[in-house]
Amino acid sequence: MKYVIVIADGMADEPLDELNGKTPVVEANTPNMDFIAKNGYTGLAKNVPDGMTPGSDVANTSIMGFDPSMLKGRGPLEAPSVGVSLGDNDVAFRLNFINVEDGKINDFTADHISTEEAEELIKALNENFGDIGKFYPGVSYRNLFVIEDLSMEELKSTPPHDVVGQPVEDNNLKPNNEKSQLINKLMEDSVKVLENHPVNKKRVSEGKLPANMIWLWGQGAKPVIGNFPEKYGMSGATITGVDLLKGISTYIDLDVIEVPGATAYFDTNYQNKVDYALESLKTHDVQFIHIEAPDEAGHEGNLPEKIRAIENIDSIILEKLLKELPNIDSEYTIAVLPDHPTPIDIKTHTMTPIPFAIYSTNIKEPDDTEFYSEDMSKGKYDTIIGHTLLSEMIKISKE
């Protein structure tokens, strides 16, 4: 039995007036998602426990089969993917390159700065602020800052994608103490280094937004989550273009499959993702396939790109999986779901339970439900705790 979990990050949404009250998923052409729901079991998954922030770290840890309540921040989860081994006293912050105009956060991605440009800016930060901590390059606007001070873990930080259009000074780290003042001043001082850097001068000349400030958030110490092979008695692997997911996978001993063209944006290579996933399934029992594009579209409020991303997941990834999986194993179980909603109208995550559908070659009496219809919550499942999804898939496969 092979298990595949397709994570369409941020795919869930709310009914939109411009779609005559439909959601992007319902508007999109998704025959393969419909097949999985109609011939499988459906329900809702609560991936974000009460009291936790609906971030991708929390929601995806749930989908990967572990209780996210032990997580200590997003930064440390991304550290392994950029080659950083955290010490016992280290705290890792996620570092975004952002664009600020008139004292307000204008773009939390700095116009999707390239990885090569970000690497040059990281060098400049280390040259100017290396006495405070160490800066590490990641992918595009997603980078890392590590400081040896466990007390930093207790500060309250704000994801920049939640406060676009708001003043920087209103969203600094809190409470106001010596530690927060150090980090807030570091972010403020970064402006002086970045705004006149050759990388940004070139970006401005090309009509692009400059990455004229850093934003530090999602900090935490090294987490202890669990071990996937020990818990489930199976080998597993992850395909994703996002360092966060790679980091979570590393901590729980899932193999990370590097895929050419996996950009974590609209232009990600869907075909390579499914091809590499099918190859990985020849040697792994469980395969997670994560696609970031719907989430990015939600954050940008870009409805056409969100619909296009959903349709690409369906027509490229799911269609080939359903066609080729029988050639790898006559028995398989596949689930498709988002990690959390990223509604177009509000451009950030919510913690609403998300619809999911599971198809298995062992299912004999399916729910016969249309994907993302209201009936999904009336299928075999009502609402499950997110980190039990894989266990439910295993139960189904043994029916």
Explained architecture:
The protein has 399 residues and is α/β, with parallel strands linked by helices. The protein has helices at 24-27, 31-38, 56-63, 74-78, 115-129, 178-194, 198-205, 228-232, 243-251, 270-280, 293-300, 303-328, 389-397; strands at 2-8, 41-46, 90-101, 104-107, 134-139, 142-148, 213-220, 236-239, 255-256, 286-291, 332-337, 354-360, 383-385. Strands 9-8-10-1-11-12-2-13 form an eight-stranded mixed beta sheet, sandwiched between helices. Strands 3, 4, 5, 6 and 7 form a five-stranded antiparallel beta sheet that branches. Helix 10 packs parallel to helix 12 and helix 11 packs antiparallel against helix 12. The chain starts with a strand and ends with a helix.
State the strand order across the main sheet: 9-8-10-1-11-12-2-13
Query: What Rg do the Cα atoms give?
Result: 21 Å
Category from helices, strands and their pairing: alpha/beta
What would the principal axes of the Cα set say about the shape? globular
Quaternary structure type:
single chain
Note the run of SSEs as H and E: EHHEHHEEHEEHHEHEHEHEHHEEEH
**Strand content range:** 15-25%
Between the first and last Cα atoms, what is the distance in angstroms?
A: 12 Å
Report the average pLDDT across residues. 95
Unreliable sequence segments:
none
Treating each run of at least 4 consecutive H or I residues as one helix, how many helices?
Answer: 13
